[in-house]
Amino acid sequence: TQRLFFDCDTGIDDSVALLYLLARPDVEIVGIASTAGNVPVDVVTANNLAWLELCGRPDIAVHVGSPAPLVADLMTTEDTHGPLGVGHAELPTPTITPSPVDAADAWIEAAHAHDGELVGLATGPLTNLAIAIRRDPTLPSRLRRLVIMGGAFHAHGNTTAVSEWNVAVDPEAAAEVFAAFGTAGAPAPIVCSLDLTEQVVMTPDHLVRLAAAAGSTPLECPDADDERGTRSVADNEIVRHLTDALRFYFEFHHDHEDGYFAHLHDPFAAMVALDPGLVETIPAHVGVELTGTLTRGMTVADERWMPAGPNARIATGADVDAVFDELTERIGTF
Ligand code: BDR
Ligand code: CA
């Protein structure tokens, strides 16, 4: 069993990542931290609680994170993830409530409780983790592994020309987190950047297969312009909400990138967190641009490892078919 702490801004692809993690019988989710990003932190928390309740896992604690980035004003992206962060899905209002322990303290408690064993996964802005490391600088050296979905090195940015969303929302936090690693004993995080995650393209066929695997009457996946906003008819409740969420994500990508598909950034990072052998990694010293007028939020990788040694391992090489086979098989158990 791997013990994992999940920090996320749920979020459509964060939702898929969460369901994937819940479907893995060999994983113990030690805690979930909500971070402000795709939608405000209270909406993220409600989504995390709702998914847990739907999946029959009210025992997993959800910890509320900071409502705002370290320095920047919060920006959210309902345009990408829908008014409530889960696309067209209308999740039931959760009856369970968040933990009184805040997200940063939860990171610290989890790292101490599972010293040297804990796998960290961050699929949202790094605000909570940065605050946790400020509170306890020993945190990085206590982790077994950290996987971050964030950054863009050779790919274009998806928020500005050069900046990826999770880093763009809280560049100072990302800078602090990278700076805290690469010292003796703190394992360099594996970074799943847009260079990698934009290869993970989900098509309507994948969606239909996924629903069928979960025992739902095979879904018709309408074209983007056909039936926007209509509800899925899947008879499996979890799959119905998931497909309602994902169809919004397809529509967003259709509007902005001219194709009916979705990039599954966060689920792939979740797979890498559990099975790092899925990717090759390039050691690099990663810094985050904080002051450039055109380049704020850009991640810069120095593969010469200057000025210090590597503080990151940049993941490359996604086997897309294998990703969707794995996702379909696991979600199919719901
Ligand atoms: C990241 O931005 C968010 O909108 C997604 O959930 C993902 O974590 C991709 O840039
Ligand atoms: Ca996310």
TrEMBL record:
Gene Ontology molecular function terms on file = hydrolase activity
The Inosine/uridine-preferring nucleoside hydrolase domain is annotated at 5-324
The record's listing under InterPro entries reads: Inosine/uridine_hydrolase_dom, IUNH, Ribo_hydro-like
Q: Which Pfam families match?
A: IU_nuc_hydro
**What keywords does the record list, in alphabetical order?**
Glycosidase, Hydrolase
Query: Does this UniProt record's set of keywords contain Transmembrane?
Result: no
Record's keyword annotation contains Hydrolase: yes
Q: Which domain of life is it from?
A: Bacteria
Do you know which Gene3D superfamilies this protein is assigned to? Answer: Ribonucleoside hydrolase-like
Name assigned to this protein: Ribonucleoside hydrolase
Q: Which organism is it from?
A: Gordonia paraffinivorans NBRC 108238
